[in-house]
Design brief:
- Keywords: Acyltransferase, Transferase.
- InterPro entries: Hexapep, Transf_Hexapept/Carb_Anhydrase, Trimer_LpxA-like_sf.
- By secondary structure, the chain is of the alpha/beta class.
- It has a single domain, classed as UDP N-Acetylglucosamine Acyltransferase, domain 1, CATH 2.160.10.10.
- It contains 3 helices and 24 strands.
- The strands form 3 sheets. A 10-stranded mixed beta sheet has the order 23-22-19-16-13-10-7-4-1-24, with helices on one face. A 7-stranded parallel beta sheet has the order 2-5-8-11-14-17-20, with no helix packed on it. A 7-stranded parallel beta sheet has the order 3-6-9-12-15-18-21, with no helix packed on it.
- The longest helix has 13 residues.
- The protein starts with a strand and ends with a strand.
């Protein structure tokens, strides 16, 4: 399913294959020989998404750009089933395994591997040819790659990256943070009410 969103329509190379149940919305460019499998969602929420050549986005994966952070995925990248990329740059020949999460402002260097259920956190730079082990967390710039049982170290780095401030423009200490966050984000997402289906 293809949708015009905020006046922008997807541009899909004629050699790319997009499953009938995939959703492609807005300012999205899909390069030659890409494969977008069933249930994948590629949605440009105010920022552009560019997929190079030979990118594979597997079942139920999510690729989302924001007004603040576009998405660029270079050639020969595999985005595994149920993986999620939000507002990030992924260089060439990267493997993002099943269930990986890549957050806003992240940059993943060429030929890196982010293994099953691993996380590349907000505003994190992962150098070329890096590996994030299964279930581990990459956080910061310079990056720290930590196992999930080191929560205090992860939180110390993550807190400095300021997720609510960077992504939503809200102070973490706001007493009604979730009220403001959901109302602001909800208004932004409500712009989908004017989407137009193209196929």
């Amino acid at each position: 399913m293809r949708f015009e969103h905020l006046g922008a329509q997807p541009r899909i190379h004629p050699d790319a294959v997009v499953a009938a149940t995939a959703v492609i919305s807005g300012d999205v460019e899909i390069g030659a020989d890409c494969q977008i499998l069933h249930g994948a969602v590629i949605t440009a929420e105010g920022g552009a998404i560019t997929l190079g050549a030979n990118v594979i986005v597997m079942e139920n994966a999510l690729v989302r750009a924001t007004a603040t952070n576009a998405v660029h995925i270079a050639d020969h990248v595999l985005v595994g089933p149920m993986a999620s990329i939000s507002g990030a740059v992924v260089e060439e020949e990267v493997f993002l395994a099943t269930g990986t999460r890549v957050f806003n402002g992240a940059h993943i260097g060429a030929r890196s591997e982010v293994r099953i259920n691993a996380v590349v956190h907000l505003r994190t730079t992962l150098p070329a040819e890096s590996t994030v082990p299964i279930g581990w967390v990459a956080v910061g710039d310079p990056v720290q790659i930590l196992p999930p049982d080191r929560h205090e170290e992860i939180w110390a780095a993550q807190r400095e990256l300021d997720f609510p401030g960077y992504v939503f423009g809200l102070d973490r200490e706001t007493p009604d943070l979730m009220v403001q966050l959901t109302e602001r984000y909800g208004r932004s997402l409500a712009r989908h009410a004017d989407d137009r289906r193209l196929d």
